[in-house]
Amino acid sequence: xxxxxxPPFEHKITKSGANYLIFDAIRRKYVVLTPEEWVRQxxxxxxxxxxxxxxxxISIERGTNYNKLQKRSDLCVYNQExxxxxxxxxxxxxxxxxxxxxxxxxxxxxxxxxxxxxITNGLEHFCWQVDFDTRQFxxxxxxxxxxxx
Length: 149
Fold this sequence. Notes:
Largest sheet: 6 strands, mixed
CATH architecture: Alpha-Beta Complex
Strand order of the largest sheet: 4-5-6-7-8-9
Oligomer: single chain
Shape: globular
Number of helices: 2
CATH class: Alpha Beta
CATH topology: tt1808, chain A
Order of helices and strands: EEEHEEEHEEE
Helix content: 10-25%
Number of domains: 1
Distance between the termini: 37 Å
Strand content: 35-45%
């Protein structure tokens, strides 16, 4: 797997048939190790170990509906009231972060209405604060640290 612009973590990898699997601490099971999953697992551990987000507030591949279509968010972090706080879209390292990717995550967020939206391909990371009144995305220099208040 590619080296990422995220802190390393102690990962558990095993092999099952032709597939490599990585242990997902959120779903508490081994999942197929794809390039996108490699990025997602690193980002999850970055949220937990560096930004202090509790595991219990992180959801992976949560389903949501938008215009009668079923959509899945890569990561959704909730606040302590159970409302979406941070929506994260993960891409493989070879997938550039384009306007189309930004549009994808903003469409998901129209239903979830998370206060922050982030996109990563493991090499580049972008984060915005969403103002739903003005429908504006304010770019942030960093992904916010968990605030327990």
